[in-house]
Every structure is written in C-alpha cells, then in structure tokens.
C-alpha cells in the first residue's frame, strides 16, 4: 500500500506540522498492468473519494505518476484532473448598514472550511433573515477568501 500524506507546516516549521489529507493507494491486482484501489480523506471534509485505477503499467513511470493518476481518478472519475475550482460567488446582503453573507449560500467545501474557521467568532443576528443566526459578517468572509483569516 502507498500512503500519500499532505501536511501543513505553519510558518514553514516542521514542529507545528499537521496532517490535513491522505490518499491510500492499494494494489488489488498484480502483474504488468496492475489495478489499484484509491481512497481519499480530508481531515475537515472527511472521505472525499474512492476509485479504482485499472491496468496501470507498473514500473513504466515514477511512483509520483501513479499517485497523481490515482488521486485524479478518485477526484474526477478518470486520469484527468477535474476543472480548476473557482472562488465561490456568494452574494453579500445588507441589514441596515451591516453587510453580511448567508452561510447556506456558501457552496461546499468552502462552507465547511469557513465554518470551522469561524468557530467561536462573533456573528451578526439578522432579524429579517429566515435563518437569523446563520449569517456572518461579509468582512469575515472576504478575509477568509484572501487568506487573512
């Protein structure tokens, strides 16, 4: 089995490293053209994909080629990468002079990542919204997107 591990090193310091995602690549059929089962896991989003990479020509390329193709297969259903993600276009609403964003309008996986980032932070209570406690200040959302939060 191959295990690909993605680590975050805050400030470039190994002492603070944190595993944030893994890919398990298991050979399920041996031979010149081997089959591999791939399982992807993100520590925030959970299990995000499984797939089988079939008839991979063993020893014909680098193990990094195998890992990249296996991950792409689990993410996109084939050996090609899915389209590059784009920043979510989330509308900014106003209540009086307070600009806010509705959490329910933020698409996944950004919503889950942002909610984790916002844990314990002050959020507005927007009385006229159907989910008055499901809103965040627009400046927090914009800071998150820019990497400042």
Gyration radius from CA atoms, angstroms: 20 Å
Query: What's the number of domains?
Result: 2
Number of strands: 7
H/E order of the elements? Answer: EEEEHEEHEH
Number of helices: 3
> Roughly what percent helix?
10-25%
Shape: elongated
Uncertain ranges: none
Strand content: 25-35%
Backbone structural class? alpha+beta
Mean pLDDT: 92
User: What's the story with the biggest beta sheet?
Assistant: 4 strands, antiparallel
Distance between the termini: 37 Å
Strand order of the largest sheet: 1-2-3-4
Provide a concise account of the structure shown.
21% of the residues lie in helices and 35% in strands. It has 149 residues and is an alpha+beta fold.
Written overview of the protein:
By secondary structure, the protein is an alpha+beta fold. It has two domains: 2-76, no CATH class; 93-146, no CATH class. It contains three helices and seven strands, in the order ββββαββαβα. The strands form two sheets. A four-stranded antiparallel β-sheet has the order 1-2-3-4, with helices on one face. Strands 5-6-7 form a three-stranded antiparallel β-sheet. A hairpin with a 3-residue loop joins strand 2 and strand 3. The two termini are 37 Å apart. The model has no long low-confidence stretch (mean pLDDT 92).
Structure characteristics:
149 residues, 3 helices, 7 strands, 21% helix
What is the element layout, followed by pairings?
Layout: E1 2-8, E2 18-29, E3 33-42, E4 46-57, H1 63-76, E5 93-95, E6 98-102, H2 110-118, E7 135-137, H3 138-146
Antiparallel strand pairs: 1-2, 2-3, 3-4, 5-6, 6-7
């Amino acid at each position: 089995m191959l295990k690909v591990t993605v680590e975050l090193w805050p400030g470039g310091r190994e002492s603070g490293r944190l595993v944030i995602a893994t890919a398990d690549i298991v050979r399920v059929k041996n031979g010149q053209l081997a089959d591999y089962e791939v399982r992807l896991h993100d520590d925030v989003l959970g299990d995000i994909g499984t797939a089988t990479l079939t008839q991979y020509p063993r020893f014909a390329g680098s193990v990094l080629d195998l890992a990249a193709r296996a991950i792409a297969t689990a993410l996109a259903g084939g050996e090609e990468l899915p389209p590059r993600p784009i920043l979510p276009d989330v509308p900014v609403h106003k209540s009086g002079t307070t600009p806010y964003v509705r959490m329910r309008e933020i698409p996944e996986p950004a919503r889950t990542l942002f909610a984790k980032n916002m844990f314990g932070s002050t959020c507005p209570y927007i009385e006229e919204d159907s989910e008055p406690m499901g809103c965040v200040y627009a400046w927090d959302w914009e800071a998150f997107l820019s990497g400042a939060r």
